[in-house]
Structure formats: C-alpha cells, structure tokens
Design a protein that fits this description.
Two copies of one chain form a homodimer.
Chain A lengths: L2 H22 L16 H19 L16 H17 L3 H5 L1 E2 L2 H4 L3 E2 H25 L13
Antiparallel strand pairs in A: 1-2
Helix pairs in contact in A: 1-3, 1-6, 2-3, 2-6
InterPro entries (chains A, B): DinB (IPR007837), DinB/YfiT-like (IPR034660)
Family (chains A, B): Belongs to the DinB family.
Keywords (chains A, B): Metal-binding
C-alpha cells in the first residue's frame, strides 16, 4: 500500500466519525456555542473541513482555497461530503516521493516540513477539534454518540 | 534521534498542553460535567493519564497498572506530573527494534499491532480527550487557554 493510501485510511478512520457527528447537528443548532467565547458549531465544523483541505492542497503545492464562501448556506453534511471527497482526491495524488517533499509552511508553523508530516499535523488538528465537537453535540441533547475513531 | 526520542517529543508537545489545562481546574470543579451523561472532569483527566501510561506499559510488554487507586485524593496536577514522568520513562526504554515488536492487544483493538503503532493510537486518544477538556475548562470560566499543541 502506498503512503498516501495508508494515510487516507487513517484520515477516514477519523473523518467518517466527524461526518457522523455533523449529521446529528440540527439546523437550529448551527449557531450553538457552549460559552460566549467559544466558536459556534457551524464555524467549528467549517474550520475542521477547510483546514484539512488546506493542508492537502499545500502538500500538493497548490494554492490553499475554500469550496464555499463564508455566507454560503449549503447544509453542513453536504459540505462535509464534498470536502471529504476533494481532500481524499488531493491526498491520493501524492506519490511516496511527494510525501517526502519539503513544503513551504514556515509562515504558518515556523519551519518548513515534509508534506507527509504536514498531513499528520493536520490530522492531529482535526482530532483535537472533533473532540471538542463531541462535547458540543452531547450538549445539543444527543446521548448516542459514535466511538471517537471508526471501529475496524 | 531514536524513534523513542522522536515519539517523546511528539507526546510532550501535547502532554505539556494537557498539563497546563489541568493546572487551571480548581478543586471545586473536579466533579464538573457539561451534561448528565458526560464524564466528570477528574475522571476524564484520570482516564487520559492512565490510558497513555497503560499503552506505554503494554509497549514494554509489562502488565498495565495505575499509579493511584480510584479513591486517592492526590491533586490532579501532581498526578499529571507523576504519570507524565513515568510514561516518558517507559517510552524512553524502547529501542527502535522494540517499536517494531508486535504486542498483544487483540482483546482491546481486535488485532495485534507493533508497539510504535500502539503508542501513536494512544496519542490520538489523548488528543481527542484533551480537545474535550478544552471545552470543559472554558465552561469553568477560563478564557485564556493555551494553543492545542505546544508552540515550538
């Protein structure tokens, strides 16, 4: 299995759980936040989806972008599906050599690192915020929540 | 740098942030939980500390154990310091070859995997629960929180 295929499996073992959580967020809870200084649920979801897509773009030496404008009203599950598909596509395009290529992230991270390491950092970021979202979704009244990682 | 040294750096880049969060939890908030079905703050902290210590023990082919009994009243920051020290010690004892050794975790994970992979899974588990703890600590009234990973 290539490195990118391995990483896609690992990524999806968390992303599929994220997408299950997103399915549980009713429209009236899109603006829910646990405290006045917390990020709103929909902003947190967008931040997670956009970040991994950005990391996958940078790993491909492409300009990071977003699939939706700030004001777009596309429901979160549809966004999640599109971001997931496009992110997998970008990672799939990386050869084992591409994974070793140093990418320009000095401004963001203080140092340049290999594409593969950037993807791993990106996934840590996603796991962190998904952990937060678990608390949000429980506070929205859901008590039947998935395990934090897909059961193999 | 050996694989265990690399892993210790990676582990501490998250554990030090966890320990900063733990320092912020006042004694009266030890039993705080966001919803009736959530885990109490002190139980969540103990679960994080005990899990990584357990994974490091298994990676060393030692019997997993706990440093404190359930009823022990040692303050959380002191527990965190001791668990962190002992966990680092255990990981430090692993040679590069030990990291490749298959360890017996079939009952827990459904398959046996190399010690190094078990440690990585353990850290994902810690990042997930640390993400949850960030929400708890903000709900306790703290608005000045660290970044989710130690800034290099």
């Amino acid at each position: 299995m290539s490195r990118s295929e391995q990483f896609i499996n690992y990524f999806l073992s968390h992303r599929e759980v994220l997408n299950e959580l997103i399915e549980k967020i009713e429209h009236e809870h899109y603006t829910y936040k646990p405290t006045p200084t917390s990020m709103e649920a929909q902003k947190l979801v967008n931040h997670i989806l956009e970040s991994m897509y950005m990391f996958a773009n940078i790993a491909n030496k492409q300009q990071p972008g977003k699939l939706y404008e700030e004001e777009d009203s596309t429901p979160l599950p549809e966004r999640a599906k599109n971001y997931t598909d496009k992110t997998v596509e970008l990672i799939h395009a990386l050869s084992d050599e591409d994974m070793e290529e140093i990418v320009d992230v000095k401004k963001m991270l203080g140092r340049d690192i290999p594409a593969g390491s950037l993807l791993h950092l990106g996934l840590d970021h996603e796991i962190h915020h998904k952990g937060q979202l678990f608390v949000y979704v429980r506070e929205m009244g859901h008590t039947e929540l998935p395990f934090y990682i897909r059961n193999e």
